[in-house]
Amino acid sequence: MNAPTKLSEVTLKTIEFKLDAQTIHAYKGETIFKAAKRHGVDIPHLCYKDGYRVDGNCRACVVEIKGERTLAPSCCRSATEGMEVQAQSERAVKSQKMVLEMLLSDMPDTGYKWNDAVSSGAAATGEGPGALGRERNAAPGPSPDAAGAMVGQHGELTDWVQRMGVSVRPALKALRREQPAPDFSHPAMAVNLDASFNATAASVRVGKSRSTTSLATPCADRTAKLCLICMTRWATAAAWPAANACKPALPARSCLRRKWARK
Amino acid sequence: MTKQTPHPSPEVVRLGTVEDMRKRIRSKSKLKGRQPEDAAVHEVHDLLGEGPFARDMLIEYLHRLNDHFRCLHDRHLVALAKALRIGMAEVFEVATFYHHFEVLRGDAQPSAVTVRVCDGLSCELAGAKDLLARLPAILGRPDVRVIAAPCIGRCEQAPAAVVDQNPVPFATAERVAAAVQTHACAHPSAAQDADFDAAALSEKPISPASADVQVAPAYVGLQAYVAQGGYQLATALSQGKADAENIIKAMEDSGLRGLGGAGFPAGRKWRIVRDQPAPKLMAVNIDEGEPGTFKDRTYLERDPHRFLEGMLVAAQVVGIDACYIYLRDEYHGCRAILEHEIAVLQANPPCPLPAIYLRRGAGAYICGEESAMIESIEGKRGEPRMRPPYIAQVGLFGRPTLEHNFETLYWVRDIVQKGPQWFSSFGRNGRKGLRSFSVSGRVKHPGVKLAPAGISLRELVDEYCGGMADGHSLYAYLPGGASGGILPASMADIALDFDTLQPHGCFIGSAAVIVLGDKDKARDAALNMMRFFAHESCGQCTPCRVGTDKAATLMQAAHWDHETLEDLNIVMTDASICGLGQAAPNPVRCVQKYFPQEVA
User: Fold this and answer.
1) Beta-carbon neighbour count of residue A90 at 10 Å?
2) Among partner residues B10, B539, B564, which is closest to A262 by beta-carbon distance?
3) A residues 164-183 closer than 8 Å to B (CB)
4) Searching chain A, which residue's CA lies closest to the CA of residue B389?
5) pLDDT tens-place string over residues B66-107
6) Is residue A118 classed as helix, strand or coil in its secondary structure?
7) B257 φ/ψ angles, rounded to the nearest 5 degrees
8) Rg of chain B in Å (alpha carbons)
9) In angstroms, how far is CA B539 from the centroid of its own chain?
10) Dist. CA B546–CA A170, nearest whole Å
11) Which residues of B touch A261 (CB under 8 A)?
12) pTM of this prediction?
């Protein structure tokens, strides 16, 4: 019948490909990104998160594949036998860093999120997430608190910016987008639209468009089913629990995800 | 969100009185989410019928609402979402993606008339900016909306404007005002008594002289087309009198390549899709949006059946079950012709027909990109897909899809009946075939010129366009619309064809040639193009969304910041998802390379 009879029928097939200088294995159909991560190579990424639909549109994870004209997003490209991938070539890193710089250039000086990696100390001092609700941290720039953690940052974006050694040049800083107004209408969450960018598909199109909630109405008027998944997953903390709000229930589906206007 | 620690000094926030809060508690019987109003539901059903409704028809439904109410009221979007049984946000995100849909909130009223003035490069050269500035005052009516529109595909009639759906060629403020005052808002209808055979016009201009331009020229109707031997090929194929393999062979031997811009060999594409598993679909791209291109419209409004026959032949050879024709919304006249002629054909089929669907774009350049067009046909935002998988394998509705530009199919009948050598016998400078150049800008006689492939710009202007316009001498030219780059007059002797311009950082694309004179600046042209890209970027990927916008701002400076622009160029070329972002840096790089004195 259909039941497997040999061990080889249940073991995952692997393929071999080249990543930078090393030769590594990937499971059949596995993305370059995941295979690289298993082998200790962490490629910059913002819109990608394990368990979520792969969008491949932040382009921070682009890699160079031999024989291809343009770079490819490693988060949604499967590795194939004999593929030659360069995640750290000069060309790949140039685009990875430029993507980070472009996104950071449109962010406000002060963000809404602490740096995940070092935030445990911050919470104890009262400077952590609880303090960042409806009001932005008053400090003009990222300010180290007593425990040395950084608050007022842009979450994963700041993390990658630091790891890749990116800074925004004055020429681009001068072109920062006009920031959309925050939406504090809902009693349980604050939506900081200025902290959003398209990378999580819940987004902004610079220029003519803006990130928006459904029908561009304030969250409180929207009366949609409130799942608050946007608070758990937004690389730069665009949606945030309002001060004194209860903890969100189990996320069902994202209400801000993919609800955006172009005009 | 790790730990919620209490704030050191918690503020007391007064949310309201107990009575207020009681009022806000939702009754259990009330449904969650924003519910449609009864009146809006009735209005939607009156227009769209009682259903069943199909998700992929969303854009068509929005068109019917938008045409009737002159805008999209948010209450109708809520009702439509309910009728379609999809999320309201899904309707909203589609409605706001397309430029021709205007979403209004609450009781806001739409304008009585919308005047769109084309601000494409050819129209800008002909004074569109001045027209845009003067029109509101001359019209003197606050209920008339005057807006700039990206290229509307009437570059040989520059400057062009459209009053609702009525195009005004060679627009002056007075002519536009006259159309508004007489409420001439519909596209005029066309007669069917034309005698037109493009093949007989080989190596000649196709468009009439400027003085004879008509908004709705007469076209060859079904009877006249059949009388000239039309549909004999399609019929012979269905009766087994013509061999599919021979037809593919003829296509390959003719050297015909995709005429939408990418230039993929047509015969090879047929073979690839033919070998895919059924059911297979065809998508025809008439979203002619590349600034400077108007060849598809020129042929379609004169000879629609030659294209339809080419489509039927391709469908039979490849084994297609359904054909989807995607027509840009700006071509209202062409839509009327196609709707009528497809109905006539279906009523009186010369051979067994596949299902044929005509889909209407809604104002988005990006939908000319093959996978974005497929998304749009499926009723979604026109965002290009990631490849692989290629659309020949996984395309429209997840099926193997044969996608062709209009003009590629237009030549099928002539190539098969006249023989592949007829097509390949044309050509200059070592190139083979015929190309329909859409020439506009500073030439005496702009229009579509059916010229041999490989012709140089200088030959094209001198032999086909009557030379440069009076008072202008050749300074620069754009060989392939917005994304094909800009070349100086000193390079006007290069052969114009696929592959010949790449070494110079340009490409021919859809052969939209825009000619600049000595009073024009290449940097202004490049800026016009970059603004166009920023306006038309779908916003999906970072390099294109942010890059085009920042570059357009940087390019306004008298002295360009070359270092920053080059970094933007690199990331756009290397890391964008589709051709829009990848080709957007071409005009910038050409100005830096060939016209450095303009931006130094």
Assistant:
1) 8
2) B539
3) 169, 171-172, 175
4) A77
5) 999 999 999 999 999 999 999 888 898 899 899 999 999 888
6) helix
7) -115, 160
8) 26
9) 17
10) 16
11) 92-93, 96-97, 103
12) 0.88
